Amino acid sequence: MTVLRAVPLDVPRLSCLVSDADDLSLLPALAWAGVDGFQVRAKGLTTRDLVALSRAVLDAVRPYDARVLVNDRLDVALAAGADGVHLGAEDLAVADARRLAPHLLVGATCRTRAGAEAAAADGADYAGFGPLLATTSKAGLPAPLGVDAVREAAGVLPLVAIGGLTATTAADARAAGAHGVAVIGAIWRHPDPLAAAKELVQAVA
């Protein structure tokens, strides 16, 4: 049975993934420009360093009402005081995360409508949907889904499209039914990250 959920107000429209290799001094400007979500993802850090990084991101963007989520690690999200956690297929189960942290945003990586339905039934607030297009930001990813897949999966959970997106393709994803997008290279590998962020904010508005 399809489980429909209203769009939670706190699900960001534009999320920027952040690692310890990124220029954290730019975070306040990115949040000021309208990036309303930041997801901390730094798989090589120790738990203590990941908590410290998450707190640094929170300190940088909280004055602008941006949301901060931690990738994979509910324990780190709770320790740092983050707004939520994003869980992949091999991470803590969504249902367990929802039980342990009912007050947090919980996102789940999904690739199909059926996956979104299962995540919704387990209590997820949104589905991270992708990779939508080809990307070099993460190795070992499955084949890109394409924008048409958004249309097929939309309407169950808010979909946050990720993977190879630019301002143009982010707008396409929104038009296909995505609630928002998450990016890495579109901001951090751009010659002018702040200008790129502003363009993306307009694209997903």
UniProtKB/TrEMBL annotation:
Cofactor comment: Binds 1 Mg(2+) ion per subunit.
Annotated Mg(2+) binding sites: D72, D91
UniProt xrefs under NCBIfam families: thiE
EC number: 2.5.1.3
Pathway(s) annotated for this protein in UniProt: Cofactor biosynthesis; thiamine diphosphate biosynthesis; thiamine phosphate from 4-amino-2-methyl-5-diphosphomethylpyrimidine and 4-methyl-5-(2-phosphoethyl)-thiazole: step 1/1
Cofactor dependency: Mg(2+)
Similarity comment: Belongs to the thiamine-phosphate synthase family.
Residues binding 2-[(2R,5Z)-2-carboxy-4-methylthiazol-5(2H)-ylidene]ethyl phosphate: T135, T136, S137, G164
Annotated source species: Nocardioides aromaticivorans
Gene behind this protein: thiE
Catalytic reaction list: 2-(2-carboxy-4-methylthiazol-5-yl)ethyl phosphate + 4-amino-2-methyl-5-(diphosphooxymethyl)pyrimidine + 2 H(+) = thiamine phosphate + CO2 + diphosphate; 4-methyl-5-(2-phosphooxyethyl)-thiazole + 4-amino-2-methyl-5-(diphosphooxymethyl)pyrimidine + H(+) = thiamine phosphate + diphosphate; 2-[(2R,5Z)-2-carboxy-4-methylthiazol-5(2H)-ylidene]ethyl phosphate + 4-amino-2-methyl-5-(diphosphooxymethyl)pyrimidine + 2 H(+) = thiamine phosphate + CO2 + diphosphate
Role, per record: Condenses 4-methyl-5-(beta-hydroxyethyl)thiazole monophosphate (THZ-P) and 2-methyl-4-amino-5-hydroxymethyl pyrimidine pyrophosphate (HMP-PP) to form thiamine monophosphate (TMP).
Name listed for the protein in its UniProt record: Thiamine-phosphate synthase
Binding site for 4-amino-2-methyl-5-(diphosphooxymethyl)pyrimidine: Q39, V40, R41, A42, K43, N71, T109, K138
One Pfam family it belongs to: TMP-TENI
Top-level EC class as recorded in UniProt: transferase
Start and end residues of each Thiamine phosphate synthase/TenI domain: 21-187
Key words of the record: Magnesium, Metal-binding, Thiamine biosynthesis, Transferase
